[in-house]
Design a protein that fits this description.
Blueprint (H helix, E strand, L loop, with lengths): L5 H16 L1 H22 L4 E2 L12 E5 L5 H9 L20 H5 L4 H4 L2 E5 L6 H21 L3
Antiparallel strand pairs: 1-2, 2-3
């Protein structure tokens, strides 16, 4: 204790500077990928419910949250993971908890709907190919999860 990690401190300063310098690029480029992802999911699964502000300008550039009626989020997660697509059913602090999000429940979301949610996060390494992979996979995955039903 007491010894400062100078390389980590310097690295954090560089990361902060780069994040500030690239903020406009990130919002534009990653926001466009998010918009393409939202459109692809809505096309493949017309009854998917987009969470949050429906206007692109009111959304975070790197996030798209959907509810898939009639699906179990964990089923969707596992089926997508098997195809190399990473997403989440909730926050890291509730990983492995087979319950709907307490945040969604607090907003008045029906518990069955809250159980069928997924969050897709994008970052500086995300590509159009990543969005295309989700676009190709999401329809069949939702059909299969709905066939399995809610448990």
């Amino acid at each position: 204790s007491g010894t400062l990690d100078v390389p980590a401190i310097a690295s954090f300063a560089v990361a902060g500077r780069l994040a500030a310098e690239q903020r406009a690029w990130f919002a534009t480029e990653i926001g466009a990928l998010r918009d393409a992802l939202v459109e692809a999911v809505r096309t493949a699964v017309p009854d998917a419910i987009l969470g949050g502000d429906p206007a692109p300008g009111g959304r975070l550039p790197a996030n798209a949250h959907f509810t898939f009626p009639g699906c179990e989020g964990d089923s969707l997660l596992l089926l997508l993971d098997a195809q190399g697509i990473e997403c989440s059913t909730g926050s890291a602090c509730t990983a492995g908890v087979a319950q709907p999000s307490h945040v969604l429940l607090a907003t008045g979301t029906d518990p069955d709907l809250a159980r069928g949610t997924l969050r897709f996060s994008l970052g500086h390494t995300s590509t159009e190919a990543d969005v295309e992979a989700v676009a190709k996979a999401i329809g069949p995955v939702v059909e299969r999860a709905r066939a399995a039903g809610l448990t």
